[in-house]
UniProtKB/TrEMBL annotation:
This is beta-galactosidase. GO terms for cellular component: beta-galactosidase complex. GO terms for molecular function: beta-galactosidase activity; metal ion binding. It comes from Candidatus Limivivens intestinipullorum. PANTHER family: BETA-GALACTOSIDASE GANA, BETA-GALACTOSIDASE YESZ. Residues 389-567 form the Beta-galactosidase trimerisation domain.
Length: 681
């Protein structure tokens, strides 16, 4: 269902602002004047608990009052980050801020409730105030204190009902719920109780969402108007261990966000792939939001030399492309980390769009150019909506959790589920096929029916009820792609004996899944293949030894494709064309876009926004050389074309538009649709 918050709002740019101890009020005023001049319309503040309550019961808001007043005078709106999980030093005896305290603790909750009440009461009616961020980059530090374990035992009682049922599942003999503990060694032991492990990680996700909901509830006691927001981080890593689940967190808030920092998280990608890496994060958050507004809440804005995992400075062209990509995906805001650098501590001198002395970077100038174009075309972008995806990719939380514990401790592959997800995404997006991500609850709610093709990469864990939903979808006319190993276990790591029905939908009978050496040339399977007892599917291709490689099948009204290899992981880890074709060809056959983007250039990414009968086309060239792309209509002709980015080079002929992009150039233009279709030969 469509969410009303920010409906019809034109996308905006914003920036995180910290008040340095040596910043004078004259410094701050000059910064805010520059923000307005360069198109910044949102300013994010951390309202640090230690700053506003430096001693118990002593509340000091002067520095934040001044910022709110400056923002109001410049027509800038404030997005305030609450820090209830980051109590002052006098309460937690921390030597510095940015620590995750345990909000399960009753004493901390009581103090945090007073902090939230003081902050929200002071600012929610202020003319500059816009939204509350419940917690910065929410996550849980693993702990087993009394309050947390009490909540875990209550959670278990709700799931299992009786201690006998729990004992049977966990292979324990607890006499009552108060005895329940869970073994969580830093490195999971080879022999370990899987259900206790998976239950604990399911609880962590619910517990984190419960903490966020509690903060929101405290806000709503006072402020029933302001949107609420969270900004999860990570994306390229296994975050199950800290309770991260974007899809669950989205249900708590009005606006879902994301922290995207190449210097920290883009290590899996080459520089020309930074566009796809960024798009992956944006599409994952957009998909998790499910109709709610979404933002990029933190985007790396400045250089990193001493911080981050690797030195990285976004170029002006990258900033431009990332802004347009977020707009093309439907984001309503992009907020930079950050406006100006801190003058002390870990990030001193880095990450800023401007310097501490107000010198403006070329990145800031590039951002201002995009902001200007958005303002000049605000009515168009305010009503525009992203082109609906016909293809979905399954984000397998069950496999993600199991990968934390399964396998020999010497070669765990904890990142494999996310890398496989990235592999399929990269293949589809490079073929200009828009993608949504779906999770377990989306399937249970019947949302498979929204898509013409659904991908299940590296989905060796697939619960029985999800398999039934999948079978029903295929019988009814849906199309499903999967690779090996597939549907072997449930989300608790138990072998499933009833997967035969699902395998028959793929036209095969599986004896077992077998490990094999990674075939990096496509002549043999990558990491894994199924030993097949019988095959009724059409064998589209074979490996070098004659065994089936790609199998196609019709089942009921639907269609399936099984790749007898870990092709999704193989494509991510090798970038070989054979794996890309095994992924892409199925969606190309099963979906039908109203426009196509034939191009020999793998470096071009595309987005399409719909605004009535007009289409906003966003193309980005991530290479260091000139590239070309052709836009064609499939069902309707291409009518009048007009530029938004003036430097864009277009050549229109009948039903196609040739776009020439310079190195690292982003092109944005509007194409009208008209009845009648003429094909060029």
């Amino acid at each position: 269902m469509e969410h009303a918050v920010e409906k019809g709002v034109c996308p905006r740019t914003g920036a995180q602002f910290f008040i340095n101890p040596d910043d004078t009020m004259e410094d701050v005023q000059k910064h805010f004047r520059l923000m307005k001049e360069y198109g910044i319309r949102l300013v994010r503040l951390f309202i640090l608990w230690d700053h506003v309550e430096p001693r118990p019961g002593q509340w000091e808001f002067e520095r934040y009052d001044a910022v709110y007043e400056l923002a109001a005078r410049q027509g800038i709106q404030i997005v305030s980050t609450l820090t209830a999980e980051d109590p002052p030093g006098w309460l937690e005896e921390k030597i510095f801020y940015h620590h995750y305290a345990d909000l399960n603790r009753n004493d901390l909750k009581e103090a945090a409730a007073r902090y939230i009440e003081k902050v929200v009461s002071r600012y929610w009616r202020h003319p500059a105030h816009y939204a509350w961020i419940l917690m910065n980059e929410p996550e849980l530090l693993v702990n087993q204190n009394k309050e947390t374990m009490d909540q875990f035992r209550t959670w278990l009682a709700k799931k299992y009902g009786t201690i006998e049922a729990l004992n049977q599942k966990w292979y324990y003999s607890f006499s009552d719920s108060q005895e329940v503990t869970v073994n969580l060694p830093e490195t999971p032991e080879y022999w370990q109780c899987f259900p206790s492990f998976t239950d604990w990680h399911a609880f962590l996700k619910d517990n984190l969402c419960g903490q966020l909901a509690w903060i929101q509830g405290e806000i709503r006691k006072i402020d029933s108007v302001s949107p609420t927001h969270v900004n999860p981080k990570g994306f390229f890593g296994n975050l199950a261990g800290v309770g991260q689940d974007y899809f669950k967190e989205a249900k708590v808030v009005d606006i879902l966000g994301a922290s995207i920092h190449p210097a920290w998280k883009f290590l899996w990608f080459s520089r020309p792939e930074y566009g796809l890496a960024y798009s992956f994060c944006v599409d994952l958050i957009r998909s998790a939001a499910r109709g709610r507004s979404f933002w990029v809440t933190e985007l790396q804005a400045g250089p990193t030399v001493m911080t981050g995992v690797c030195p990285c400075t976004p170029s002006p062209q990258e900033i431009t492309a990332w802004l347009w990509d977020a707009v093309g995906a439907g984001a309503k805001a992009v907020i930079y980390w950050m406006w100006h650098p801190r003058t002390f501590g870990q990030e001193a001198g880095e990450w800023g769009l401007v310097t501490a002395n107000h010198k403006v970077s070329r990145r800031m100038t590039a951002s201002a150019g995009v902001s200007r174009l958005l303002r000049e075309n605000r009515e168009l972008f305010a009503k525009a909506e992203p082109e609906p995806a016909q293809t979905a990719v399954f984000y397998n939380h069950g496999t993600e959790v199991l990968s934390l514990i399964e396998g020999s401790p010497l070669y765990r592959t904890q990142e494999a589920p996310i890398q496989a997800l990235c592999g399929v995404y990269k293949a589809l997006m490079s073929a200009h096929i828009p993608v949504d991500f779906i999770a377990e609850d989306n399937i249970r709610q019947g949302r498979l029916e929204n898509y013409k093709a659904v991908y299940f990469p590296y989905s060796y864990a697939l619960d029985a009820d999800l398999q039934e939903k999948l079978l029903s979808y295929i019988k009814g006319g849906g199309s499903v792609w999967a690779d090996a190993p597939f549907a072997q276990k449930n989300s608790e790591g138990e072998i499933l004996r009833n997967s035969e029905a699902l395998y028959k939908a793929f036209g095969m009978d599986v004896i077992e899944f077998q490990g094999c050496e990674a075939g990096e040339d496509g002549a043999k399977p990558y990491l894994c293949q199924a030993d097949l007892e019988s095959v009724s599917a059409r064998i589209q291709s074979r490996f070098g030894d004659g065994s089936p490689a790609v199998l196609r099948h019709t089942y009921g009204k639907g269609h399936t494709c099984f790749v007898n290899s870990a092709a999704s992981l193989g494509y991510f880890q090798t970038r070989l064309e054979v794996f890309r074709k095994q992924i892409v060809s199925f969606a190309e056959e099963r979906t039908d876009r109203e426009m196509e983007f034939p191009s020999e250039e793998a470096c071009i990414t595309s987005r399409v926004l719909r605004a009535g009968e007009e289409r906003i086309i966003i193309l980005e060239n991530w290479s260091e050389r000139e590239a070309r792309c052709v836009l064609r209509g499939r069902k309707k002709g291409i009518g009048a074309v007009r530029k938004i980015t003036e430097e864009t080079r277009l050549a229109q002929e009948e039903n196609q538009v040739l776009v020439t992009l310079g190195p690292k150039e982003s092109a944005v233009f509007v194409a009208g649709l008209r009845e009648g279709l003429q094909r060029n030969t």
